[in-house]
Design goal:
- It is globular and about 60 Å long.
- With 250 residues, it is an alpha+beta fold.
- It has 11 helices and 6 strands.
- β5 and β6 form a beta hairpin.
């Protein structure tokens, strides 16, 4: 059995048993982690009839970085997001984001990402037949030399993994997020307010002062929102709420 098949066969089998967002996140993280990758991010950039520039859907990036990325609205300047839809095959970040190619806030974005060792990676564009577009991005672990070797060795296998993953996960996420979940789990006004302030970096205490409620009440509303949005922490609740159009950064 080839190396690619040894990775793909159990992965595809496991996909059939995934029941929710956390299963999907854990499954891909386990698979690419064994290949030498530290982080991955899967996001749906465009869905027919919904719009574009949707934030991350499933990611293993540190919560602090995800929250900072959202707060700084880096999605508007990230060259990976800009270039991705124009590509048909996997591309290395170094090919489009070398120091000489960056400008303005992009320089700050990549300087901050570099400090966290997440500025070197690869993205896999996934185009749908109705104009839908999703992207899988991976960040290898190790030294720059080790990272380059990992990316080179698993480039084609990652492409196949991403396509299988999107075929299963994309359908599940779109149906749940844009179908039943948005209708059945609408947040209350107070839950939206708490997540709205969290989205711009306010702490529980700061939110309680702004809304003139107790810290315990803020926690209560955030916990309810997490449960409705089927997430495990506040950062993911913010991301999911933005994705569903329940709150915004405007």
């Amino acid at each position: 059995m080839s190396q690619a098949n040894a990775i793909l066969e159990p992965f595809v089998s496991d996909l059939q048993t995934a029941q929710g967002f956390e299963d999907l996140r854990t499954m891909f993280d386990r698979t690419v982690g064994a290949m030498g990758f530290r982080y991955f991010t899967y996001h749906i950039v465009k869905i027919a009839g919904v719009g574009s520039y949707l934030p991350y859907v499933i990611t293993t990036y540190p919560d602090e970085w995800v929250n900072h990325y959202i707060t700084q609205d880096y999605v508007r300047v990230d060259p990976i997001i800009t270039v991705g839809p124009k590509r048909l095959v996997p591309f290395l970040w170094d090919d489009i984001a070398s120091p000489g190619q960056l400008e303005g806030r992009q320089v700050t974005l990549y300087a901050e990402a570099s400090d966290l060792s997440i500025a070197k990676g690869m993205s896999i564009p996934i185009h749908g037949h109705k104009g839908e577009f999703a992207m899988m991005s991976v960040v290898p672990a190790g030294t720059p030399q080790e990272a380059e070797k990992t990316l080179s060795e698993f480039r084609n296998t990652l492409h196949l993994l991403a396509l299988y993953y999107h075929n299963h996960a994309g359908t599940m996420l779109i149906e749940k997020s844009y179908g039943g979940t948005r209708k059945k789990s609408v947040l209350t006004a107070r839950e939206r307010e708490c997540l709205q302030w969290a989205a711009i970096g306010k702490s529980t205490w700061e939110t309680s002062v702004i809304l003139h409620i107790s810290e315990a009440s803020v926690v209560f509303h955030v916990e309810n929102a997490k449960r409705k949005l089927d997430v495990t922490n506040r950062t993911h609740a913010v991301v999911r709420a933005i994705m569903l159009g329940l709150i915004s950064l405007d």
